[in-house]
Design a protein that fits this description.
With about 425 residues, the chain is an alpha/beta fold. It contains 14 helices and 18 strands. It has helices at about 5-10, 30-35, 105-110, 130-135, 135-145, 165-175, 180, 250-255, 270-275, 285-295, 295-305, 325-330, 390, 400-410; strands at about 20-25, 25-30, 55, 65-75, 85-90, 95-100, 120-125, 155, 195-200, 210-215, 215-220, 230-235, 240-245, 265, 310-315, 340, 345-350, 355-360. The strands form three sheets. It has a nine-stranded mixed sheet, sandwiched between helices. A seven-stranded mixed sheet has the order 10-11-12-13-14-15-16. α11 crosses α12 (about 325-330). It is globular, with a radius of gyration of 25 Å. The N and C termini lie far apart (about 65 Å). The structure holds zinc ion (2 copies). One zinc ion (ZN) binds near residues 131 and 316. One zinc ion binds near residues 127, 129, 225, 226 and 247.
Length: about 425
């Protein structure tokens, strides 16, 4: 039985390796019991829990010296069910968590992780294309509804004008949510709905520290993309280094400051032929977008040959059975090191000794996670009332709603009354 290379890497770094043999580049699946006993048939059916070949949220402790990275969006600005737009979660063994970009559709992936939203309060933006911050509203409003009882903190670059900076974008996003936020006053716990706490830093800063807390140092360096402003980040903690590259033409700063990364994420755009044939771009447009505004696979490989990370992660392409082989072949013309072609829900566990790559299995039917703190009862006096005109449109339902009040009051020892 043949197993794709990327799965082989995951399998052979996992505890399941006991049940697998490598022979002439082929992998044979053999039951662990047979492998141990050498008998033809297992004497007993194995009933003990064994290490798994996938990651399931909330099922594993993170070691004190371990990093975990989860791809919550690896796609493009063009929406598709399989891949949300850019978002990577970084979790550290000290308990810190950081989101890098929150592209359109990614908040749904984040919800699958079942992490209390109070711990998802730090977002680092590479730039202000919607495929990198388009789900900020979902994380902001939905996250507060699901238990974030503190401000959402956002770090992001300035632009070449104030209007092209992160602060302007988030101040105006907050304004755009005026009706939404006013409508929640007096109805929900208000603590998560306060304005974004934005730290805007100079996009021209070269390897400058933009965050330093709790033993974690995050630096920014410029990227070359569309307009001035985009950046990449490095995170150093406990002797490990994570790098997240924003959209870019290959640049000298990444070549220098991503060096020695344990995990280096860099965009790798969809190929020019695929842009023409599948995206229906003109050849001229495909060349411009696929090789000048972004990083072509061959260029991604050349960059990773310079950076030499312990694991290179390529994203920002539709990762399908008919596109991945071409992307990989092109990368392999310029790079022969460890490689992950990222897709949504790919997970990397990183320690000094090992990088383990797996896919996540999750529950589609997730509900909001248990909040880390008790919710606050809203103050009904803060509610902005409907007009008399609208209130006069209410159909009388008091008789059918009163039993709901009675039931709830009795169950929770309250004395709530209908409006
Ligand atoms: Zn972009
Ligand atoms: Zn992008």
């Amino acid at each position: 039985m043949k197993i794709p290379k990327i799965l082989m890497a995951a399998v052979f770094t996992s505890g399941l390796a006991a049940g697998l043999y490598l022979a002439n580049q082929e992998v044979a699946l053999v039951s662990p019991v047979v492998a141990q006993s050498g008998q033809d048939k297992p004497a007993t059916s194995p009933v003990k829990a064994r290490d798994r070949d996938f990651y399931a949220p909330n099922s594993e402790d993170l070691g004190p010296d371990e990093m975990r990275v989860i791809a919550c969006g690896t796609g493009m600005p063009t929406a598709r069910p399989k891949q949300a737009a850019t978002c990577f979660l970084l979790e550290l063994g000290n308990g810190d968590k950081f989101l890098f970009d929150i592209g359109t559709g990614s908040a749904e992936r984040v919800s699958a992780l079942q992490i209390p939203y109070n711990y998802l309060d730090k977002v680092f933006l590479s730039h202000l294309h919607s495929d990198h911050f388009g789900d900020m509203d979902a994380l902001f409003v939905g996250g507060a509804l699901m238990g974030r009882q503190k401000p959402l903190r956002v770090w992001g670059p300035s632009g070449d004008t104030p209007e092209r900076g992160t602060k302007y974008a988030l101040d105006h996003l907050y304004k755009a949510l005026t009706w939404d936020l006013d409508g929640r006053k007096g109805i929900t716990d208000p603590r998560g709905y306060v304005p974004f706490e934005v730290t805007e830093f100079d996009y021209k800063g070269v390897n400058e520290i933009v965050y330093q807390e709790n033993g974690v140092t995050i630096r920014s360096f410029p990227a070359i993309h569309a307009l001035d402003g985009p950046v990449s980040y490095s995170v150093e903690w406990n002797g490990l280094k994570f790098v997240f590259g924003g959209d870019t033409y290959p640049n000298k700063w990444f070549a220098e400051y991503a060096k020695d990364a344990d995990l280096a994420i860099h965009e790798c755009f969809i190929t020019v032929p695929a842009l023409v044939e599948k995206f229906k771009f003109t050849p001229q447009g495909a060349l411009s977008v696929g090789t000048q505004v972004h990083t072509a696979p061959e260029a991604f490989g050349k960059m990773m040959s310079i950076v030499k990370p312990r694991m290179a992660v390529a994203f920002h392409f539709f990762n399908d059975f008919d596109t991945a082989p071409d992307i990989e072949q092109r990368i392999r013309t310029t790079y022969d090191g460890p490689l992950s072609l990222a897709t949504d829900y790919m997970v990397w566990n990183i320690t000094k000794d090992e990088i383990r790559t797996r896919m996540m299995i999750f529950d589609e039917d997730v509900w909001p996670p248990q909040p880390s703190e008790e919710p606050q009862v809203p103050d009904p006096n803060l509610k902005i009332p409907n007009s008399e005109f609208i209130l006069n449109g209410k159909y009388d339902m008091t008789d059918v709603i009163q039993p709901i009040y009675d039931e709830t009051n009795e169950k929770y020892g309250l004395d709530e009354k209908q409006d």
